[in-house]
């Protein structure tokens, strides 16, 4: 096993564990109950996955799915749910800034003196107290932001398997950046509306859609192409379509059923049923409608192009040109070279044959 692969595999999972433990610590601070430390036991699943990956995959990832990302979601999402559902919303004040200034002032006074163990312990204790005094909305938003950043950075650092190329990984990471921004905007924009948190069912629905949208991060389907079997005939239209345009279809499906589609439904419910209308809510609703329409338009275009290529391939095989139906069609459809009717074309063909006989 390469040393760099081992370091990336262990270091990335260590970051996941530390961040999930930070979320558990924040939950225990907010709830004031030590029993929530039991959430830290979920990290044992990530430790087991690390052992199995190092033993059977030599630290490298899988083709279609990333177990490390999925288990990281399993570890951190319950903590974020508990923080979002906490009934006491603390208002932010200048207390945190004052405490930070006090700590920096103490460090300035002690600068130049010999640093003892007691001084380090006291500084660490003051830092922990300062972090504990930060208001809950800032903590929760910070955990959301670092969570999404770690998903992207962790997916980048995790060793890739032999089935996925670096070009595909770069495409996947670029998609994740835009996806993470949309998801963060969805949670921060909808949950910060004044009357939303007073309706518990609505908060549960928003968090449920948010959790559902996070399930796209462990998947590598958006950049993977299915291997086409030569035995697939043109009569199996759906399998042939999935074979040729698997990555495009997965992208459309993820947008319609995991991200933009559910986001649009939630925002429409907020506006129509709960009568919650804000300028940003209207804007992002229009944006989701536009994305859904464009994805459906792309699906129709792919379908028309696919059926046109099937018709052209069938006519090519009748003319003696072999073409495997399972391969993507890169041939362009021939333009109509005869603008006259069939009788004129037949007359020209007959005249050419007679001329050839005389020659």
Structure description:
The protein folds into two domains: 1-90 and 129-189, no CATH class; 225-326. It is mainly α and 359 residues long. It contains twelve helices and no strands. The protein has helices at residues 3-31, 43-56, 67-84, 95-109, 117-133, 136-157, 166-191, 200-214, 237-244, 246-272, 279-318, 342-358. Helices cover 69% and strands 0% of the residues. The N and C termini lie far apart (75 Å).
Considering the chains and any ligands shown, give keywords for the structure:
single chain, 359 residues, mainly alpha, 12 helices, disordered C terminus
Strand tally, please?
Answer: 0
Coarse morphology: flat
Distance between the termini: 75 Å
Give the tally of structural domains.
Answer: 2
Spell out the helices and strands N to C: HHHHHHHHHHHH
Query: Structural class, judged by helices and strands?
Result: mainly alpha
Q: How large is the share of residues in beta strands?
A: under 5%
On the 0-100 scale, what is the average pLDDT?
A: 78
Oligomeric assembly: single chain
The Cα radius of gyration reads 29 Å
Summarize the biggest pleated sheet. none
Number of helices: 12
The unreliable regions are: 107-114, 320-359
